[in-house]
Amino acid sequence: MTVAPVRSQDPVGTPASRWFGLSDIALCASLVVGLSVMLFLGMDMWLKGSQEPRPLRALIVDQLGDTNPGATFRRDTEELLRERGYHVDYVPPANVSIGTYRRLAELDYDLIILRSHSIVSGSGADSAQRADGGIGTNQIVDDSAFVEGLNEALAVNGLVKTTYIGQTTPFRYWAITPSFITSQVGRFDGTTIILMGCGGLSSKGLARAFRDRGASQFIGWDGYIAARDADYITGSLLRHLVHRPRNAHRAVEDTMRETGPDPIYGSTLSAYP
Hints:
The chain is an alpha/beta fold. The protein has helices at residues 22-50, 71-83, 98-102, 143-146, 152-157, 178-184, 205-212, 227-241, 248-259; strands at residues 56-62, 86-91, 111-115, 118-119, 134-140, 159-162, 173-176, 192-195, 217-221, 269-272. It is globular.
């Protein structure tokens, strides 16, 4: 007699070939979710690893370098900033033109040091034109070469002609004013501006102009300053500022407490706003 084979059954009577219950579906779903999470975390870690923080960037614009070389200031400043993680660029005197200031915002610097002559607010025979001060360039006034591409309003309101204290040459140079900054300079992204020349904060015109263009802090002098004293005191300022890059007022206070005012003119550093 032939005996028919018995079909294998699961505990609840379901044929083995159909044994794929809710527990298996849950297991598969868990595996899929787990793999998805691992893939997401792995991609997130890869993206974070590939997006390293942008290095800090600093720029020194050395308009004074021809008449007041300041090699020690440059060396010490670059060394200090590099120790604090800054990439430092340097613009030598021969390259400090109107175009230099026009391009200041393009490379996204965190700190810009303007080692430049500046115009004390209200000084000189044309004081009405200089009411809000200005920053010197090394571009000699040559109207025929400069007028191209410059509208009349900018020539009157954005630039002034100036000579520098102690200058022995007959040349006059272009200096930029607050209206030039607001109309010709791009947008900064929280940059700190240090103006080492005379009277950068004898009025708030320059500081406001840089703030209007996105700078976060402006540091300058309230009166005249000798170049050698500006180098020394700015060096002290930078040592304090690199420890508190977003607190210019505290850095200025600590600097003035350490060095005192300029020994010749009695001028002091200030920060804006």
